[in-house]
Amino acid sequence: MRERHKPIGLIASRSRHGACVEDPAAGHRLVVVADIVSSRRLDVSARRAVQERVLALCGAHSAFRVSGGDEFEWSLSDAPASLDRLLWLRLALGIREGEAPGVEVRCGIGRGEVRVSSTAGPYAEDGPGYHRARAAMERLRAPPARSRRSTSDPLEPGAPRVRRTAWVDEAPNPERDALLLHMDHLFVRWSAAQRTAVAQVLSGATYEEIGGREGISAQAVQARIKVADLSLHLVGHAALKNAWRAS
Considering the entire predicted model, what is its pTM? Predict the structure, then answer.
């Protein structure tokens, strides 16, 4: 069984030390405002280890900054490949590394101009890109609406129970919102073992190579990928990138 998934650019987004590589620049950018889900449930040492893990992955680059507590901001190139970098970061943080437990990351995304007023200070960068990303994060933090089925319109959906990603642009995009919601529901179902397998598959490893590293059979790796519905998640990921290119 020599099946190998085509890498989607995640390796290219890392330095040889595993950190996210991104050159800061003003102009049109993809901005991500993110925080750690349920971080208050972590004990002090685990929370500190997660924060150190985030800094190890992205903190060496001035396009990244910790904006307070467990929240951080990341300015990426305005290109579809930046979605690959974001997926890789979420996968990396979802896998235990040393004392840092695997965690989920909630992300508010915005595209737009980024202005750099100076090279000093944590808030030297601002502009519509940051404003939209922060507005997206506020949507995620808003208390969920009560989910009640409508007897007059049975096809009317109730409020989603799980939402980890919101994206704000100049104009509403309900189709993209729905796609992100479905992708979130797939992603949060992944176990630690599935995330580990997915991360290695997306780095271009074969099932045999992954099985050798994890001490399991290639068939067991394939089963983890199948149960994770990775192909379905990647259909959504590719659709987001294709819609971006077409816009």
Answer: 0.84
